[in-house]
Design brief:
This protein is of the alpha+beta class and about 160 residues long. The protein has three helices and four strands; from the N terminus they run αααββββ. β1 and β2 form a beta hairpin.
Length: about 160
């Protein structure tokens, strides 16, 4: 009889213990499932944002790439070529001649470029103290030479 009661108590104890473990694991699974769902939703949202931001780039704009391909150029090669042409002018002693401002504490140099499409570039420039931005138009003339035109620029006031 004692053995029977002991066995029943042991079985009840095991059942309660296993039930608690199962409930804890079930809570962890639900929490992790919610976290995965949230992370997937965040990833979809970020992917959509990147897709929207990437549209205003040379390599993200199908129309711009098609335009260059019809002219016999590859978009990646054009972007690399134009980037190198702009940055190569930074080594000039008086600064980059594309920057429409003279440096006040040194020569103006272009820091960053963002290709908007097959025709325009947004550029950031500075002399180390003062900085500004500009929109450059670039194109290949009839002799297939690269030309630049500064469309707009601004110099931020020193704060």
């Amino acid at each position: 009889m004692y053995l029977f009661f002991f066995a029943v108590l042991f079985i009840i104890f095991q059942y309660m213990h296993e039930k608690k473990i199962f409930e804890d694991q079930d809570k962890k699974i639900k929490t992790l499932t919610e976290q995965v769902t949230t992370a997937e939703a965040d990833q979809e949202q970020l992917t959509a944002q990147v897709r929207d931001l990437d549209y205003f780039t040379l390599l993200g704009n199908d129309n711009a790439m098609t335009y260059l391909e019809h002219r016999g150029y590859e978009a990646e090669e054009v972007q690399a070529f134009v980037t190198n042409a702009i940055y190569d002018q930074n080594v000039l002693e008086d600064g980059n001649p594309l920057v429409p401002y003279e440096g006040m504490t040194g020569p103006m140099r272009i820091n960053k470029l963002k290709f908007l499409n097959h025709r325009w570039i947004q550029a950031d420039f500075t002399d180390g103290t003062y900085w500004g931005e500009m929109i450059l138009e670039y194109y290949f003339n009839e002799q297939d030479e690269l030309e630049f035109v500064v469309e707009a620029s601004l110099l931020y006031p020193k704060s």
